[in-house]
UniProtKB/TrEMBL annotation:
It comes from the Eukaryota. It holds the Pfam family PQ-loop. GO terms for cellular component: membrane. It comes from Pycnoporus cinnabarinus (Cinnabar-red polypore). It is found in: Membrane. Its main location: membrane. Keywords: Membrane, Repeat, Transmembrane, Transmembrane helix, Transport. This is Mannose-P-dolichol utilization defect 1 protein homolog. Belongs to the MPDU1 (TC 2.A.43.3) family. It is a multi-pass membrane protein.
Length: 250
């Protein structure tokens, strides 16, 4: 078997080395050393990270396609998408500027881009009252200018300020996710939100070892109580017979 793994095509070897490194690629792939626990853990974490990135790249594609095909974004909350997009963008900027591996934050890049497109579609198809009077082209240009301004601001913020912004995004899953993405009044909106929710649930994986240990922790053992037999019911006394009851009632 090692004769095959050591003679893989160059592009497969280069891809494997780029993902797990030369040492772990040689140990796991070429030598098939399954006893190398450290490389196994590292390779598994890298694989899960890349899987989350791939999931994030297609997570909101059904939502986009349904909005475009219906030519309507009714039922979608503009405020919710703006907050969610800002949260993803802050996490993306913080991770990139700190030099984190792409597999640990790559899904934020794709989610930010998809959310920006959805936000622009909401402004285009169903603008808020403050922008409804403006032409569609003017609304689109104004929205793109706001997006560029936020991107430049995140790129120029001092590291300490960006770190504070990153801390502020930590309650995103507990706060922003509670904001309703929309009340779907039509069938196509229901389908869009259902598709988005399904992809969001399938893409929710823990990013830290502590969270993973909490997810994989076994349930507490069941406490067994000692069995106690029910007390025997007393036998009916002769004084409570049906005939005596009739005499008493009479």
């Amino acid at each position: 078997m090692t004769a095959i793994t050591r003679n893989l095509p160059w592009f497969i070897k280069d891809l494997g080395v780029a993902i797990v490194g030369e040492k772990c690629y040689t140990s796991i792939v070429e030598n098939l050393d399954v006893a190398d626990v450290e490389c196994l853990k590292y390779s598994l974490s890298k694989g899960l990270g890349l899987g989350i990135v791939v999931g994030g790249s297609i997570m909101k594609v059904p939502q986009l396609l349904l909005i475009v095909s219906a030519r309507s974004a009714r039922g979608l909350s503009l405020t919710s998408y703006v907050l969610e997009t800002l949260s993803y963008a802050i996490t993306l900027a913080y991770s990139y500027r700190n030099g984190f591996p792409f597999s640990t934050y790559g899904e934020n890049l794709f989610l930010t881009l998809q959310n920006v497109i959805i936000t622009l579609l909401i402004v285009h198809y169903n603008p808020p009252a403050s922008l409804a009077a403006r032409p569609s082209a003017q609304r689109t240009v104004l929205s793109i200018q706001v997006v560029i301004a936020f991107a430049v601001a995140l790129a120029l913020l001092p590291p300490s300020t960006l770190a504070l912004c990153q801390i502020a995004t930590l309650p995103r899953t507990s706060l922003f996710s509670k904001l309703p993405p929309g009340i779907p009044p039509r069938t196509h909106s229901r389908k869009a939100l259902a598709s988005l929710s399904a992809f969001a649930r399938s893409n929710s994986f823990p990013r830290t070892p502590a969270a993973a240990s909490l997810v994989s922790s076994p349930p507490p053992p069941e406490v067994r109580r000692p069995y106690r037999s029910a007390p025997a019911s007393p036998s009916p006394s002769p004084s409570t017979s049906s005939s005596d009851c009739r005499y008493v009632l009479m």
